[in-house]
Write a structure and sequence with these properties.
By secondary structure, the chain is an alpha+beta fold. It has 2 helices and 4 strands; from the N terminus they run E-H-E-E-H-E. It has a 4-stranded antiparallel beta sheet, covered by helices on one side. A hairpin with a 2-residue loop joins strand 2 and strand 3 (about 40-45). Helix 1 (about 20-30) runs antiparallel to helix 2. The longest helix has 17 residues, at about 50-65. The radius of gyration is 18 Å and the shape is elongated.
Length: about 90
């Protein structure tokens, strides 16, 4: 099962990149997740165990780094079905 986690950490700072935000980003990067940074938060996706372990680390590390609020949403990603490959030499058109 693949999951996506979306998160934000507070307090927001417009001038600098706060330590708690850096800790959150480090947690998902080092977990090997596919990360996307947006204007209102960050999302990361990967296999369920990988994401869940990253979320636990993210919560611990960002609180230790000074976050006073962490918003987290975890979603199950739909499974993608791949079309079976045609045997070699068979035209599919």
């Amino acid at each position: 099962m693949r999951l996506m986690v979306e998160f934000t950490t507070e307090p927001f700072e417009l001038v600098t990149f706060p330590d708690h935000a850096a800790a959150a980003r480090r947690a998902v990067d080092e977990a090997g997740l596919a990360v996307s940074v947006g204007p209102f938060g960050t999302s990361a996706e990967g296999e369920a165990e990988q994401v869940l372990a990253a979320v636990a680390r993210l919560l611990h590390d960002t609180l230790d780094a000074g976050a006073n609020r962490i918003s987290v949403q975890v979603s199950v990603l739909p499974e993608t079905k791949t079309e079976p490959e045609a045997p070699e030499g068979v035209d599919t058109q």
